[in-house]
Write a structure and sequence with these properties.
Strand content: 25-35%
Shape: elongated
Number of helices: 11
Number of domains: 2
Largest sheet: 9 strands, mixed
Distance between the termini: 75 Å
CATH superfamily of the largest domain: Nucleotide cyclase, GGDEF domain
Radius of gyration: 23 Å
């Protein structure tokens, strides 16, 4: 193919097969529009770009460019689709990004900046190479890239989950050890045309393999880490105080006598609640999945000084259903509903044993929230 250049871009005529991915910062425009001054905005975006880029490099990947609040990256070693270690590095990178998010959000909270939420999409296929600028930098083009980008920006992309395309899925399933270590759940099809759909999958590590993920430091975000490990699954982590347990959940363990369980399918909200309560002597465990919260409560033997804070509108199991099942386990467990719904009177009439003090409207006021929690726990 003949090379040509236009406005600083020169297509090389070369193409490779490679894993490519996008990491998008969710709702960054909404977050930055309320920030006070350009310095806060610069710190916010530079923290995102630098933290994600560092992890790409440490996983033998390369950042191609940032497009506003989105980073494009690829992994050259995956050009050989028989190189299992190269493909495992891609997965470890995506998991490490989600893992690192908790410590970054803790630092952002100290600077009064909003937390990060990521959309991560990864796929595999042929990409065309081009040289840009002074022809010393590589850029990528092609249908694989376009499709991965569209998946990232579509409703199929779930914040803080790893969504992969069908081509990448097929390569990963060809490695028996990777198939053994990870779950691939159907995430729906991206409609390329009215009649052609492209399957996508949600990638998660299996529970039996979670014991080697750690969030202690930058280098130990990978399964090869040799330091003490802490495991998590759909729970938020307070980096100052956390312990591992048999359920694969992280919790704050300042004081085992006073316990708070947070259940809300919005991770931002859980992060806010934990930030509000971090200076109190509570053991805090957080769940985005109400079914996992229910199983965790069932496996407890001690229900003294236990408060469960519930959202009402949640997938799989709504707050009313969760409340009934928790009370069936042990009626002494204290409950606090926190909801955006204006249904105080309805709640009082349909939920037996609930008082006005056990219902709070979103968005919550920090002082009222902490005082209510203190009163109910004690």
């Amino acid at each position: 193919m003949k090379n040509f250049s236009s406005k600083g871009i020169r297509f090389s005529g070369d193409s490779i097969k490679s894993c490519v991915g996008f990491i998008d910062l969710v709702d960054s425009t909404k977050s930055t529009i309320t920030m006070d001054g350009l310095d806060c905005i610069r710190r916010y975006y530079s923290t995102f770009i630098n933290s994600v880029s560092d992890l790409v490099k440490s996983s033998n990947g390369k950042v191609v460019k940032n497009i506003g609040d989105c980073l494009l990256f690829y992994f050259p070693k995956t050009s050989n689709n028989k190189n299992e270690n190269a493909f495992r590095e891609v997965i470890e990178y995506a998991l490490a990004v989600l893992n690192r998010r908790f410590s970054i959000n803790d630092e952002l909270a100290k600077q009064h900046l909003p937390p990060f939420n990521f959309r991560i999409s990864i796929d595999y296929g042929v990409v065309d190479l081009a040289l840009v600028g002074d022809y010393s930098q590589i850029d990528l083009f092609g249908s694989t890239l376009n499709l991965c980008s569209k998946i990232n920006s579509s409703s199929l992309s779930i914040p803080n989950e790893i969504i992969i395309g069908d081509n990448f899925y097929r390569v990963l399933k060809s490695f028996s050890s990777i198939d053994k270590d990870y779950n691939f759940s159907n995430n729906g099809e991206y409609q390329i045309t009215e009649t052609i759909g492209y399957p996508t999958y949600n990638l998660q590590m299996k529970r039996s393999s979670l014991s080697f993920i750690t969030i202690n430091n930058d280098t130990s975000s990978y399964p090869n880490a040799q330091s003490n490990t802490f495991i998590f699954e759909n729970s938020l982590v307070d980096n100052n105080y956390y312990t591992s347990n048999e359920n694969g959940l992280c919790s704050n363990s300042k004081n085992n006598n006073k316990r708070v369980i947070l259940v809300d399918d919005e991770q931002d909200i859980l992060f806010t609640y934990r930030a509000f309560l971090k200076d109190y002597n509570y053991e805090i465990t957080s769940f985005t999945d109400p079914l996992k919260a229910l199983n965790y409560i069932r496996n407890n033997n001690n229900f003294n000084d236990l408060l469960v804070i519930l959202d009402i509108r949640m997938k799989n199991l709504n707050g009313f259903q969760l409340y009934q099942q928790i009370k069936a386990i042990n009626p002494t467990i204290k409950i606090l509903f926190v909801t955006a719904l204006d249904i105080l009177d309805e709640l009082l009439s349909i939920v037996p044993g609930i008082s006005k003090d056990q219902i709070m409207r979103k968005p919550v006021d920090k002082k009222i929230f902490t005082n209510t929690v203190k009163k109910l726990v004690n």
